[in-house]
Amino acid sequence: MSSIPAPVLELRDLVVQFVSREGPLVAVAGVTLAVRPGECVGIVGESGAGKSQALLAPFRLAASAAQVGGIAQLHGEGLLALDEHALDRVRGAQVGFVFQDPMSSLTPHRTIGDQIIEVLEHHGRARGQAARERALALLHKVRIDDPARRLDQYPHELSGGQRQRVLIAIAVACDPALLIADEPTTALDVTVQAEVLALLAELRVERRLAVVLVSHDFGVVSRLADRIFVMYAGRVVEEGPASVVLAAPGHPYTAALLACIARMDDALDAPLPPIPGQPPEPRALPTGCAFHPRCPRAVVRCRSESPALVADGPRAVACHFPLSP
Amino acid sequence: MMRYALARIIGLIATLLLLVTAAFFVIRLAPGGPFDEERTILPQVRANLEAAYGLDAPLTIQYARYVSGLLRGDLGPSFKHKDVRVSELLGAGLPVSASLGAAALALALLCGVPLGFCAALQRARVLDHAASVLIALMIALPAFVLGPVLSLVFGLWLRWLPAAGWNDGSLGYAVLPVLTLAAPALAYSARLARTGLLEVLGSDYIRAARARGLGLRRIVVAHALRPALLPLVSWLGPAVAFVLTGSLIVETVFGIPGAGRFLVEGALNRDYTLVMGMIVVYGVITLLCNLAADLAYGWLDPRVRRR
Q: Is A276 strand, coil or helix?
């Protein structure tokens, strides 16, 4: 086992719920996953599947009403018992975060350089002129054009793609072991998307960075992920090596998501098959398998009995009737 | 920047001219004139009076005379206060009103803004609820209630402070009127500071700053406070003009010789030049405050900065 490095982040039976007047709302209902150094785990699902909550709530970056249960460990140390002060030494230092909207994730009244230097100084990585030089090097690293000028510019003077690069630079400024990227390319143009993904891939290899890539877009995840977790209604419905999941999905939901992606070799007028229906309301989950109302293969058993995540070769599928390869 | 400043100054003068024009003609729409009184005046006397004040000329000529006087800094004679220039009246009243207003505004901001920020940081806890009650109370209590109550309690019952009077703004005399005038401004600034900070704390860039592990204090001070002041600054522009030019109610309750009464008194008496004088002063202060607010905006949020 010594050949397999210990996981950077490990979640076991993680539960996230929001308590409100209408009662608890379970956003994540028991997710187990691990990310190792240099590995990229992709988490796919429609919006509301709980994928962002599962990754952000352990670091208390979900809504403040979130209650988190189960186990979440960073380098084997429990995260859920940490207070805000202790978490501030984890966030930004050991774990970097990149969010969906680069337009609104930088503080508008402070310069780019100021915000990078701030993180370096706050976590004690560099001070003064040394910090400024490191900020400049980071901007070079994320391939921003004219980095020296950018240091003194304000966020609104940069394009969305440039800003996302700045945010990636801030996220990796303190050499974290883990990068959590929550829909990092969703707000960007397709060409910029590809560049940003290439940058993440490069950083991951160079720094042996563990990466969790959360996206609703299989196309994005498939470019970077070694392992893929497919989430539906707060649960993992399929997980496995990316090559296996992409080539031969085991869960009908995974297959349906993959079928929605346009391929270069499709006929131009070939329609994309949409998944019928809507993701379920978290307060009114269907009985049995949560996917059964939208599943073309559902039978009586699917309505009554919730399928467990069962290993099936290199992957695991939560379906009574997994698709055979 | 020079070009921007120049454009702003030209715009300011144009706005002021527009204001003067509109005010000049609107005032004349009101029925009656400065020399209508219960007792009838001989037609010949009235004609002489009107001739003496130039009211017999066509309105456009009167307007032209007024504007040319204004450009020379002359606000004209008061129609009601005999042998007194409007500038003399304002010169006596405005400094009193302005010092009262400035003190009230300073008190309101120095207490209101920190109160609002603390309430936002303690959201839904005791301090927040207490602040909300206090704010609602101060907004709901009109000056004609708060002023007499303060005067009664501290002036007549407890005898800690003079119940009324100004005495050239000596400290003891100023306390109660300043408090009365400051209360609603304090409440508004606290409320704007609270909602401003709450809104900013809920924004994406604050979550992003938390994700960098910056810690609450640093996030509030370095990331949240400046944008949280924006709503306060836009309120402050008109509020400063309002407070500095005097409050009729507060000045009447405490018997303060300020400028607050000029606008109402002048309007009731059809003292056209006095009303115009107040409008010009009010307009200039408002426009200057708005200019200051715009400049402050540029500092608070670089996105509105122009080049």
A: coil
Burial of B245 (0-12, 13-18, 19+ CB in 10 A): buried
B222–A118: do the CB atoms touch at under 8 Å?
yes
Least confident of A2-6, A246-250, B109-113, B223-227: A2-6
- Least trusted range by pLDDT, from A109-113, A214-218, A232-236, B77-81: B77-81
Smallest Cα distance from A100 to chain B, Å: 10
Q: Distance, in angstroms, between B2 CA and closest chain A CA?
A: 22
B48-79, pLDDT tens digit by residue? 888 888 888 889 999 999 999 998 988 888 88
Half-sphere exposure of residue B194: CA atoms within 13 angstroms, side-chain side: 23
- Specify the pLDDT at position B2: 72
For the cut 60, the answer to whether the pLDDT of residue A49 exceeds it is: yes
- Given CA atoms A133, A134, A135, A141 in this order, what sign does their dihedral have? positive
Query: Shortest Cα distance from A274 to chain B (angstroms)?
Result: 31
Please, what are the domains in chain B? 94-264 (1.10.3720.10)
Write out chain B residues lying below 8 Å of A55, CB-based.
none
Does B209 contact A85 at a Cβ distance shorter than 8 Å? no
CB-based contact B214 A92, cutoff 8 Å? yes
- Number of other residues whose CB lies within 10 A of the CB of residue A220: 23
| A105/B208 CB distance under 8 A | yes
The answer to whether the CB atoms of B212 and A101 lie below 8 A apart is no
Among A170, A207, A173, A229, CA closest to A32: A229
Any A CB within 8 A of B209 CB: yes
Report which of A31, A58, A11, A41 is spatially closest to residue A213, judged by C-alpha positions. A41
Residue A3 pLDDT grade (very low, low, confident, very high; cuts 50, 70, 90):
low
Is B303 within 8 Å of A90 when comparing Cβ atoms? no
- Residue B306: the pLDDT is 54
**Encoded tokens for A159:** 């394009």
A-B C-beta contacts closer than 8 Å: 74
Is the pTM higher than 0.90? The answer reads no
ipTM over 0.95? The verdict is no
Alpha carbon of residue A182 to chain centroid: 4
